[in-house]
Amino acid sequence: MNFQPAPIQGLWEITTTPRFDARGSLTRLYCADEFEEITPGLRFVQVNHSVTAQRGTVRGMHFQRAPALEAKLIRCLRGSVFDVIVDVRENSPTFGRWHSVELTEANQCQVLIPPGCAHGFQSLADNSQLLYQHSAAYAPFCEDGLAFDDPRVDIRWPSPITEVSERDRGFKRIGHGFEGVRA
Q1: Which of 130, 42, 150 is nearest to 79 (CA)?
Q2: Ramachandran region, residue 93 (left: φ > 0; alpha: ψ -120 to 50; beta: rest)
Q3: Is residue 107 assigned to a domain?
Q4: Catalytic (active-site) positions
C-alpha cells in the first residue's frame, strides 16, 4: 500500500497494488500494522456497502459528532465516484476546505477520512458501489451533515446533479446555523 497525505489535515489517499496470477488477483485493502504508522490506535468496528443506482446522484455530506466521531476508509468496488471530503473541525487549519478523489473499480485508490470531516460523493456511473469501514458504530443521535451545495465550501460537482435525498437537502450551510465539529 502507498499512503499519500492529502491537503486536508489527517486525510490520506491510499493506492493498493493487486497481485495477479492465472486464477485472477488478490488485493490487500487493509493492514493494521501499516495503518498504525499513520493513524495509531485506528480500529474498524463496522463495514457498510452502498449502491447508487443513477449516475449524477449526490450523497452527503455526512459525518458523526461526539461521542461517535468516526474515521472512514472508503473504496469503490464497482463503477466510479467523485468522492469529496470537507473538513468541518472547528479548530482545524483546513476548516471549510474540500478535497476530491476519483474512486473507481480500476484505479485501486481508497481514502482514509479522519474524524470530524464530512464525506459525500457523486456517482459517475450507474450502479456504483462503495465499501465503507468505520471506526465507530452508526449512532443516529450523533448523525449530522453539511449542505452539499454550501456556497462557502463551493464543491464543484463534475456532472449535473440528478438525485439528492430530502435528508441531504436539509443540511445546514456554514454561517447559516451549521456548527463545526469540536474534536
Answers
A1: 130
A2: alpha
A3: yes
A4: 62, 132
Coil, helix or strand at residue 124: coil
Domain membership of residue 176 (yes or no) is no
The answer to whether 117 touches 62, Cβ cutoff 8 Å, is no
* Average pLDDT of span 65-86: 97
Per-residue pLDDT tens over the stretch 127-167: 999 999 999 999 999 999 999 999 999 999 999 999 999 99
- Which cell is 47 given? 463495514
Report the pLDDT averaged over residues 35-53: 96
* 9, 111 contact by CB (below 8 A): no
Domain span including residue 40: 2-17+27-169
Q: What is the mean pLDDT of residues 119-129?
A: 98
Q: How far apart are CA 141 and CA 98, in angstroms?
A: 25
CA dist., res. 159 & res. 69, Å (int) = 30
Give me the number of domains the chain comprises.
1
Point out which residues pair with 110 in neighbouring strands. 14, 75
Instruction: Name the residue with cell 501499516.
Output: 34
What pLDDT does 182 receive?
87
Domain presence at residue 155: yes
Nearest alpha carbon to residue 181 among 118, 89, 92, 117: 89
